[in-house]
Amino acid sequence: MTNSIINPVENIEVTQNLSENFILTTLDDLYNWAKMSSLYPMMFGTACCFMEFMAAYASRFDLERFGMIPRATPRQADLLITAGTITMKYAPNLVRLYEQMPEPKYVIAMGACTITGGMFSVDSPSAVRGVDKLIPVDVYIPGCPPRPEAVIDAIIKLRKKIANESIQERQQTGQTHRFYSTRHQMKAVTPVLDGKYLTSSSRETPPQEIAQAKGLELPLALPEVERELE
Fold this sequence. Notes:
Rossmann fold, 2 domains, three-stranded parallel beta sheet, about 30% helix
């Protein structure tokens, strides 16, 4: 029995066999293959996770070998990687960027601050506790911050998800929850620190109880303060 090479290194011969000149596939597979092989992420970052996202594009990891070309405008991107903390002040801008992206579009939540608020989830009055309250998320990357290998692993998982999609079911996979539209009943409160403590009445004129207890007249203000007020 002689050993034969299954795929020998030689020039490809053009044959007349029908099975070797046609490729049979489905529209879903062809569409998903083109879509997963040309993901265009938007250059978006708000905190330290964006440094790891940039490192994934460096020569050591070379994220562009997956066909991912970063875009500077949301109208030319179909992937949004939320790399960093999202605050309530920035939430409307994030939703606006997501809505400007054309369909089909995908979101990867990168880092603990984006997923649950991270270190700011306990005592921060401005950090959003989960970006999925604003926009739908397809893949989560835990870590603080995640390594570039974790970003590549999330891209591979997203490619597998895209490969299993169907064009007929696209309208049924929309976002079902939207917490950003909830109106909070907040009341305006007068600020405690107004910056006018040097000219307050209690500082210019000390209370009479203090003057009577000391038995002497207190100065209105120190000479340095008087010069600043002048």
